């Protein structure tokens, strides 16, 4: 269903746009780790599996040696997505050489889940697709335990059909502002529930119940009340949020054509498509099966002010390219993509990053050790090696302080 794919794609882009600290907090949840793994391009999934039991950083040059010449573009896409989601941490050493390592929280939870979670079935499938049967044979499948179980049918009586849930979900969905930081954890958890099954509201926290009422308006769940119990029923909009959007079927369902003159044509009858396009383009007229618009500086500024990034817009246009242009490279004209990025930089010429400044190190050895450690944990911002001064991201201040204390 094209609508589900669009929403899921935009949702994972919202995840990638979160600050580093909030992303790391999300990775405390093993279900979220699995959801992010599912959303990755095939090559990125393969890299995660290869890194899963490697604790030391791997240089970018070493990884490039794994890739054939004609596969380098896919390699770059995979690396970029892994870095956006902080699944990979980028480390730069003193020689300016780049290395990558798995986010420790993501890595630790995924390792645990290999033994106890349902991710094994997905991993086995991924590995088989890369002809890694010798690895798949080492895994034993264990079904994962969801946070709650479906309610018995004798209590819920009649539940809506899957078709009725689809209609309800699409009727309720709106393109309105939602704080992604408040919803992401719960939404990704919802994606592991079964469509059409009832789940008791008593299993939720007060915050989740409050959020659930908004999600019902958005069409992600349907709420029902019995004589003694109340329950919610996930729709496909919720249960498919973490699905991978990188398969070939997404190309077949594409509907957007972007021209070099910034004109945009969308061959669709969906009101949802129309509202999504209005987020970043000026819709000029709409026929029963055709939406015609233009990407303008003003329409993009409105999108940027609402928290939509240039990369999210370009990615949406690429993922939903009409079959007539989907096989082109690139599917979105380069001049259009470049201009979208330039207009965004006009609004973001200065980026403010909370940071901590360190100086007066007791020795050169301690300074260099601290600098290397900051790079390793992805918090390094600047250094002056002569005066032994160091600036790191505020997110890692507690770790840095403890590390320096141990060096004295």
TrEMBL record:
<dbReference type="InterPro" id="IPR040662">
    <property type="entry name" value="Tfb2_C"/>
</dbReference>
<dbReference type="Pfam" id="PF18307">
    <property type="entry name" value="Tfb2_C"/>
</dbReference>
<comment type="function">
    <text>Component of the general transcription and DNA repair factor IIH (TFIIH) core complex which is involved in general and transcription-coupled nucleotide excision repair (NER) of damaged DNA.</text>
</comment>
<keyword id="KW-0234">DNA repair</keyword>
<dbReference type="GO" id="GO:0003690">
    <property type="term" value="F:double-stranded DNA binding"/>
</dbReference>
<keyword id="KW-0805">Transcription regulation</keyword>
<dbReference type="Pfam" id="PF03849">
    <property type="entry name" value="Tfb2"/>
</dbReference>
<dbReference type="GO" id="GO:0000439">
    <property type="term" value="C:transcription factor TFIIH core complex"/>
</dbReference>
<keyword id="KW-0804">Transcription</keyword>
<dbReference type="GO" id="GO:0006289">
    <property type="term" value="P:nucleotide-excision repair"/>
</dbReference>
<keyword id="KW-0539">Nucleus</keyword>
<keyword id="KW-0227">DNA damage</keyword>
<protein>
    <recommendedName>
        <fullName>RNA polymerase II transcription factor B subunit 2</fullName>
    </recommendedName>
</protein>
<dbReference type="InterPro" id="IPR004598">
    <property type="entry name" value="TFIIH_p52/Tfb2"/>
</dbReference>
<comment type="similarity">
    <text>Belongs to the TFB2 family.</text>
</comment>
<dbReference type="GO" id="GO:0001671">
    <property type="term" value="F:ATPase activator activity"/>
</dbReference>
<feature type="domain" description="Transcription factor Tfb2 C-terminal">
    <location>
        <begin position="338"/>
        <end position="405"/>
    </location>
</feature>
<dbReference type="GO" id="GO:0005675">
    <property type="term" value="C:transcription factor TFIIH holo complex"/>
</dbReference>
